[in-house]
Write a structure and sequence with these properties.
Layout (H helix, E strand, L loop, with lengths): L5 E5 L4 E7 L5 E6 L2 H17 L8 H12 L5 H19 L9 H12 L4 H20 L26 H10 L5 H13 L3 H5 L10 E4 L2 E5 L2 E5 L8 E4 L2 H8 L19 H16 L8 H12 L4 H8 L4 H7 L4 H17 L2
Antiparallel strand pairs: 1-2, 2-3, 4-7, 5-6
Length: 353
């Protein structure tokens, strides 16, 4: 009888051991004082397994769907939707027919190589993160012994400095905003002067407007074509942001179409993605400034503050970043400029010592 697995001696136990992977994908081990008894036990287990074969393990595709069904209860709808798209578009087509014991580190390494041929590195890493999260749960469920995603060589995440406008381009846009729809003007000026995310701006209600600040406690997102209101991205995203009084005065003067500060002509919430296509792109084109993503207005806001000498911790709190390290990492390209500007002050300080 041909047996798979390996036999070895354990000195600490003073016994022989035989380990192998069973039909259910789990590692099996038997022990005995000598080789003859060990082989007898191993053959007995093999016969028993053939007489009563374990149920065929579910494919990765089936188990991924089970994991997502359980896991999405703890996720925000928009995040759960992205996980589902990653599964449907990439993981299930590429790994769906595999059983868990077939998904070894080398298989995942090949998957990453394949993904990077057509996708950006950061997108491939996001797909890997979703796969790793599922595999970690499979470990907890005792379906696999270890998470194979932790045993591969990952590509380095690329962090390119965000593309933003220079001072002249910003002045050109501000001048043109005097001729656009008042609501469009309010949205863009608030984005530039507050650093709030697009979904946070479109979720603002009139009650969120203070005398010289705005309260961020919710965000609008698109999920399956529907606009939903949900808590902000992270705990730190719940914040109060000071805003120039003249900007808030302009916003308070807008027509009140609904409880939302910014809404379409019928009073319904704007679809953030659609607003960018139909309004934001047109305004930039007519203003004669380079097209940048709406999200880049957050980077513009942060860059202006940092270049004016505001501390990284203050900027991080305004942006609602989850941690200070992310802010440092995102805007580290500005540090050489700071160092040159602060050099005279440093010289003066140390010369006094």
């Amino acid at each position: 009888m041909k047996l798979n697995g390996s036999m070895y001696y354990i000195a600490a136990r003073k016994s022989w051991a035989y380990s192998w992977r069973g039909g259910d994908g789990k590692i099996k081990i038997v022990y005995a004082r000598n080789k003859e008894d060990l082989l007898e036990k191993r053959i007995g287990k093999e016969r028993k397994e053939k007489e009563n074969p374990p149920p065929k393990p579910d494919s990765f595709g089936v188990l991924f769907e089970k994991w997502l069904k359980v896991h999405k209860e703890t996720l925000k709808p928009a995040v759960a939707h992205r996980y589902q798209l990653v599964g449907q578009k990439y993981l299930i087509p590429l790994l769906g027919k595999y059983t868990l014991d077939q998904i070894r580190p080398m298989v995942i390494q090949d998957l990453m190589i394949q993904l990077q041929k057509t996708l950006a590195t950061n997108t491939a890493l996001y797909i890997l993160a979703v796969l790793s999260s599922a595999c970690q749960q499979f470990v907890v469920w005792d379906l696999i012994a270890t998470n194979p995603c932790t045993q591969i060589r990952k590509p380095k995440r690329k962090r390119n400095p965000p593309v933003i406008w220079d001072t002249e381009e910003l002045k050109r846009l501000k001048k043109y905003l005097e001729y656009v729809d008042p609501q469009e003007k309010g949205i863009l000026l608030l984005a530039i002067t507050s650093g709030a995310r697009q979904g946070e701006i479109f979720a603002l209600t009139w009650e969120d407007l203070g005398e010289d600040d705005i309260t961020i406690n919710k965000t609008l997102s698109e999920v399956n074509g529907k606009i939903i209101c949900q808590p902000p991205k992270s705990l730190n995203s719940n914040r109060i942001i000071s805003v120039p009084k003249n900007i808030l005065d302009h916003i308070r003067g807008l027509d009140r179409r609904s409880d939302l500060v910014f809404s379409d002509p019928t009073g319904k919430p704007w679809n953030p993605r659609c607003w960018c296509k139909s309004h934001y792109g047109r305004i930039l084109r007519q203003a004669g400034v380079p097209k940048i993503k709406f999200h880049a207005l957050r980077h513009l806001h942060a860059t202006i503050l940092l270049e004016e000498g505001f501390g990284v911790e203050y900027v991080s709190k305004r942006l609602g970043h989850a941690n200070l390290a992310f802010t440092y990492d995102t805007y580290c390209h500005l540090r050489p400029k700071y160092e040159k500007e602060k050099l005279p002050q440093l010289s003066e300080i140390f010369n006094k010592i």
